[in-house]
Amino acid sequence: MFEILLIDHTKNRLFLAAEFLQWLDGSSYDVYRKEETGQEKKRFFQLFKNIKIPAPNKTFDLIIDFTDSADFQSANLIYPILESKKSHLKKDNIIPPFSKNQMIYMQPSLETAIDYVDKYLSQHDFENKNILISAGPTAEDIDPVRFLTNRSTGKMGIALARAAFIRGANVQMIVGPVSETLPQMVECIKIRSAAEMADQIKLKFTWCDYFISAAAVADFTPIEVNKNKLKKDKNNLILELKRTADILQTINDLRKPHQKMIGFSVETQNLIDNSRQKMKRKNLDMIVANNPGITGAGFAADTNQVEIITEDKLVSVPLLSKKETAHQILNHIKTLH
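User: That's the sequence. What structure does it adopt?
Assistant: Structure tokens below.
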């Protein structure tokens, strides 16, 4: 039985804690609470029948603290650390394997809380592996007001980053302009254009063992970006475009023998054949293909239905949440040799 202690929460975090407890409810966890005297907290804990009061000096597998801490300064990262004044761990010790009575200071994110517990329970089959993930669209400026982009939201790439973190990998993301919340425990480099995406991937590529190209990078960009807003008149606008750099083909020149490259293919017709051709053309070890015309598998959906293609395999993954799809993809990445 896995045992967790929850410590106090300020009023504005009670809702988060309630969601977290609902997620734990009915699971294989025993959940305890630190005894408090506040009437509001007493009423709150009475909502959950599985909450227990710990015996004195009891030890726990994991301690999760929802309180505000004056010693915890970072607004963007979450560190698994002991209380600052007692800690022998430093804040630059990001995400070491959890040990008895280790503590997580939580920012108000239910997904992050769940990811940390999932990480604790996982087999860490990607431990000591470096995974670089590109995600989201790019934006190609026309003038100071207008730009070209696509329907990508970055959800699949973000799901992959979270899943890789849970499974013990060192993860970095290069992400285009998205409105989705980025994983707080993953280093995220924000870019805007296809050229910026290419520059950052080339800069980071030699670091990784696996590169997952989940971004929807623009194929074309305006030849010239107007310094002032284009004014409309009675004539049609002719916009001259040029090809952007082919990132996957470019980094093949930097590739080391141990590095694996995984691409994505979005096709509305001839899904398998077109994706196989892309995999061969870009020298990929694996490609993940999907048709956005399938209900539940389109852009901005929380689910996906994909085909996983390697040189000798074709695996159809049914409609799943993007988190579950990400783990299916990682299962197949793990088999690449």
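DSSP finds eight helices and 17 strands in the chain.
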